[in-house]
Amino acid sequence: MKLKQLEGLLGSLQQFETPKIELEQYPTGPHIASRLLYTAENSFGDVSDKVVADFGCGCGTLGLAAGLLGAEHVIGFDIDAESIEIASLNADELELDMDFIQCDIRNLRLSDRAIDTVVMNPPFGTRKKGADMDFLSMALKVASGAVYSLHKTTTRDHIKRTALREYNASSAEVLSELRFDVPQLYKFHKKKEVDVAVDLWRFVPNNNRPKHL
Amino acid sequence: MRLLTHNMLSSNIKGVTNGFPLRIEVEKVVEKEVDLNMDFLRNMFAKIEWKALVEASRTMGYSELPDDAESSMLDSDEFLRKFHHALLELHLEEGALVCPETGRKFPVNKGIPNMLLHEDEV
């Protein structure tokens, strides 16, 4: 599938009707989502025929993009039932099979190494401090192949240090720097639109650990 | 929810040490056909908890999987088809997942398990 086609399909998906600020619900735009998955598949082979998890899936954009690029089994995780419902409808629209689990990512218990790749656009931690790190920590626990994630450029050094020293990553690379368009979704947003500098990361977990549940 | 997903999920209640596998209570099962991917199945075989898959598929009404399996069986087309069917084509649509240690039920609606914990379970 060509990048433009993928981007087009993702652009047609339904998004949050009433986004919840406390959960930092922002749609992952088709431009970023298509490039994240396209890179994961074409540069690293991390998508097709793999088990892919989308942490904080929201309306399912990243997970569905993985499905469109040939992931064999995709699971979306989110704390919010309404988002999952929209994601479910989006999956039906695209005629894709995607499992969903409603849960709090911080107390999820998944077997080690059952998931190949994690893709995510986690909360940045502007509402619930440390939320971005909670997501990253969990992702590196469950992925056996790679984790693709988006984090604010301002947190770059902290992310790299923490991932390598505390979260068992054997490598942590910024693949590209992107601008995340934050549209005027919430009442406190004064500007019509704002650009946030965001890093697209690829982390590889250290696999020298025994399998356990 | 496919059984592949069920096979990786544990009860996440605080203090539970034997939270796997979650027992399944069935109200509605849906079957959806998908193409068989041999390489994928071979890869998954090594990662799957076989007994949990067998038990789960039988609860869902499918009893074709053998009690025990070893990788040499992957050479058989028939075995691959059954493995494929149990792992990817059976969906728990309505019912519950039950913590084997505490009995706590996690409801499944429209194929989606709700694993959100109450305050005292965290």
Automatic annotation (TrEMBL), chain A:
Family: Belongs to the methyltransferase superfamily. PrmA family.
Domain Methyltransferase small: residue ranges: 48-129
A GO molecular-function annotation: rRNA (adenine-N6-)-methyltransferase activity
Cross-referenced SUPFAM superfamilies: S-adenosyl-L-methionine-dependent methyltransferases
Highest rank taxon of the organism: Eukaryota
Native organism: Sesamum indicum
Name of the protein: Methyltransferase-like protein 5
A Pfam cross-reference name: MTS
PANTHER family, per the entry: RRNA N6-ADENOSINE-METHYLTRANSFERASE METTL5
From TrEMBL, chain B:
Protein name: Multifunctional methyltransferase subunit TRM112-like protein At1g22270
GO MF annotation, one: protein heterodimerization activity
Signal peptide per UniProt: none
GO biological process, one term: tRNA methylation
InterPro entries documented for this protein: Trm112, Trm112-like
Family assignment from sequence similarity: Belongs to the TRM112 family.
Taxonomy, superkingdom: Eukaryota
Assembly: Interacts with TRM9.
Organism, scientific name: Sesamum indicum (Oriental sesame)
